[in-house]
């Protein structure tokens, strides 16, 4: 999809104008989302144990492609990850995650994260060799109905 620079400039002006209207909704600005995994989950470079995590953009205004993962109360930063924009056909009112079901006792891998209402999400970037492996695995899209919770386990069942 080719994007005209003029559209980007207009979009940034609109976003800046709306920023002050959205200031009361901080979670929308940085897309902060709490997600609970009932089993371990792989992210680029590490495996996170079962638990509740907060995913958020570093800064909606400066870099939409940098995601941070914290513990649920933001006191521990597990990592800062470069992502690439990814599209979905229709936005939903729910958080959506795309996972690779690795099997063989390995944890599911987090591939994509979509914030509620957005048609553009965040695709996590893995090393080329790992990316090839994950492409061969079964993929599953999980919808978190309240956009704050999600469960995953190695059996392939999720909420």
Structure summary:
Helices cover 20% and strands 42% of the residues.
Percentage of residues in strands: 35-45%
The percent range for helix content is 10-25%
Rough shape? globular
Instruction: Please mark out the parts with pLDDT under 50 across 5 or more consecutive residues, or reply none.
Output: 7-26, 146-159
Mean pLDDT: 78
Structure report:
The chain has 159 residues and is an alpha+beta fold. The chain has one domain (27-144). 20% of the residues lie in helices and 42% in strands. The chain is built from 3 helices and 10 strands; from the N terminus they run ααβββββββββαβ. The protein has helices at 5-22, 26-30, 128-136, and strands at residues 33-37, 41-43, 46-48, 51-59, 63-71, 77-87, 95-101, 108-114, 120-124, 138-144. Strands 1, 2, 3, 4, 5, 6, 7, 8, 9 and 10 form a 10-stranded mixed sheet that branches. Strand 8 (108-114) and strand 9 form a beta hairpin. The protein is globular. The model is unreliable at 7-26 and 146-159 (pLDDT under 50).
Question: Main attributes?
Answer:
3 helices; 10-stranded mixed β-sheet; disordered C terminus
Q: SSE layout and pairings?
A:
Elements: H1 5-22, H2 26-30, E1 33-37, E2 41-43, E3 46-48, E4 51-59, E5 63-71, E6 77-87, E7 95-101, E8 108-114, E9 120-124, H3 128-136, E10 138-144
């Amino acid at each position: 999809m080719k994007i005209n620079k003029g559209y980007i400039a207009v979009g940034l002006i609109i976003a800046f104008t709306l920023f002050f209207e959205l200031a009361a909704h901080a979670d929308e600005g940085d897309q902060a989302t709490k997600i609970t995994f009932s089993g371990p989950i792989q992210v680029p470079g590490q495996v996170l144990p079962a638990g509740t995590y907060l995913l958020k953009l570093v800064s909606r205004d400066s870099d939409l492609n940098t995601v941070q993962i914290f513990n649920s109360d933001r006191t521990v930063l597990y990592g800062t990850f470069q992502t690439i924009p990814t599209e979905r056909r229709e936005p939903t009112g729910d958080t959506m995650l795309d996972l690779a079901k690795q099997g063989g006792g390995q944890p599911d891998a987090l591939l994509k994260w979509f914030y509620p209402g957005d048609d553009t999400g965040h695709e996590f970037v893995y090393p080329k060799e790992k990316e090839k492996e994950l492409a061969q695995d079964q993929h599953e899209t999980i919808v978190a109905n309240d956009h704050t919770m999600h469960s995953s386990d190695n059996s392939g069942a999720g909420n």
